[in-house]
Amino acid sequence: MKTATGIPIHWVGFVVALALLVQQIVLHGFEPATTMMAAFFQVGVLTLLCATLALIILPPRRVAYLLGFLVCAGLMGWALWLQFGMDLEPCPLCMFQRVALCLAGLVFLVAFIRNPRRGGATAAAIAILVFAGAGAALAARQVWLQTLPKDLVPSCGMGIGYMLDTLPFTDVIAKTLAGSGECAEKGWVFLNLSIAGWSLVFFITMIVAAFALIRRD
Predict the structure, then answer these.
(1) Between these two residues, 97 and 10, which has the higher pLDDT value?
(2) The dihedral sign for the CA sequence 207, 210, 211, 212
(3) Which of 36, 85, 100, 108 has its CA 20 to 30 A from that of 74?
(4) Separation CA 37–CA 185 (nearest Å)
(5) Mutual orientation of helices 195-212 and 92-114 as an angle, nearest 10°?
């Protein structure tokens, strides 16, 4: 898709997102976003940047599926390093986001192995929409919790392992979605975004790329 001047729309989006990111850094430095509006604005800018970059460099379908799997594996490896190398214990919302990431990575791996045509690529995109969409919803919930005033942050709850051992699975899901105090902790921050913010960026980018691959040879 191109603009009236003949410039591909994804290039326009990339330049706009890059300009907004530079503006944010100049005006606010590298301080983490402290309000909900600022946090989701930053997520939107970086999502536009990453998604348009993915569309610009989008390789042939099978190669892209392999890259999608490697990105998921890399993100999972990074999460494990943060946990065991930097002692950042994952909260329940983080754990469910990891599950969504692994499922999305599995879809990319199966698609790479099977090398589907357009119909199979559509099915893969729908599966990515389900799994990455669930991960994005969980990440968005955590970003929202991280922007709450301290007096509104829920109290810390049970660990995910304890909940799985003692509660019905439906109650575990309900308590996880409700969030708890540890879910509001940012821990690691890069370009003003927490781990949850970056997870949201990558989940949305995966969905955009997966649907773009339907029309890619």
Answers:
(1) 97
(2) positive
(3) 36
(4) 18
(5) 20
Q: Could you count the other beta carbons within 10 Å of the beta carbon of residue 84? A: 10
93: CB partners within 8 A, 6+ apart: 138, 139, 141, 142, 145, 176, 177, 179, 183, 196
**Axis-axis angle for helices 118-146, 36-56 (nearest 10):** 160
Q: What average pLDDT does range 43-70 have in this prediction?
A: 92
3-state SS, 76-128, equals HHHHHHHHHCCCCCCCHHHHHHHHHHHHHHHHHHHHHHHCCCHHHHHHHHHHH
Query: What is the pairing mode between strands 193-194 and 189-190?
Result: antiparallel
Q: CA 214 to CA 217: how far, in whole Å?
A: 8
Taking residue 158's Cβ as centre, other Cβ atoms within 10 Å add up to 15
